[in-house]
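C-alpha cells as discussed.
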C-alpha cells in the first residue's frame, strides 16, 4: 500500500532546506497547500538572500535563495501568511565573508564545526535581539483557513 493516497490530509507540512532544490517552487507549495487540512500549517525553512548565492549553492542543487518578498511571491493560493522571519544572524556574516572573499565552493570540516559550536549558539542569543530581521536562513509559516 502506498504511503500517500489521494485522500491524505495533513495538519502540518514542513520543508526543511528542500524548497530551494525544487525548480517549480510555486507549484510545489500549491500542491502542498491542497494536502493540508483546514487550520493546517505549511512551514518552509530555506537559505536566505540571493546575493549570498555561491558555487556551493549550485554544487548542491539550489535553484535560488529566498527573501521575504520572494517567499511571499510563492505563497500558495488559499493560505494565509502567519509569519516570515530570518534565522542565524551571525551566520550571515560568515556567509558574506565566504561570498565576498573566500569564495569556497564547499565549507571545510573545521568551518562547519566552528559554525555548529560557536555561531549557532551566538545566533540563538542574537536573533531575538534583532527581532529575527536578519539571517542566513528564512522561515515562512502559512495557515489554511478553517
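Sequence:
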Amino acid at each position: 500500500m502506498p504511503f500517500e493516497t489521494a485522500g491524505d490530509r495533513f495538519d502540518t507540512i514542513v520543508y526543511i532546506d528542500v524548497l530551494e532544490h525544487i525548480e517549480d517552487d510555486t507549484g510545489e507549495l500549491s500542491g502542498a497547500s491542497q494536502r493540508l487540512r483546514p487550520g493546517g500549517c505549511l512551514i518552509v525553512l530555506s537559505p536566505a538572500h540571493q546575493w549570498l548565492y555561491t558555487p556551493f549553492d549550485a554544487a548542491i542543487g539550489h535553484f535560488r535563495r529566498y527573501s521575504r518578498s520572494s517567499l511571499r511571491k510563492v505563497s500558495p493560493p488559499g493560505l494565509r501568511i502567519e509569519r516570515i522571519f530570518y534565522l542565524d544572524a551571525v551566520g550571515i556574516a560568515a556567509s558574506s565573508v565566504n561570498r565576498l572573499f573566500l569564495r569556497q565552493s564547499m565549507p571545510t570540516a573545521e568551518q562547519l564545526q566552528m559554525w555548529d559550536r560557536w555561531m549557532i549558539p551566538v545566533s540563538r542569543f542574537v536573533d531575538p535581539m534583532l527581532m529575527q530581521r536578519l539571517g542566513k536562513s528564512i522561515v515562512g509559516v502559512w495557515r489554511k483557513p478553517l
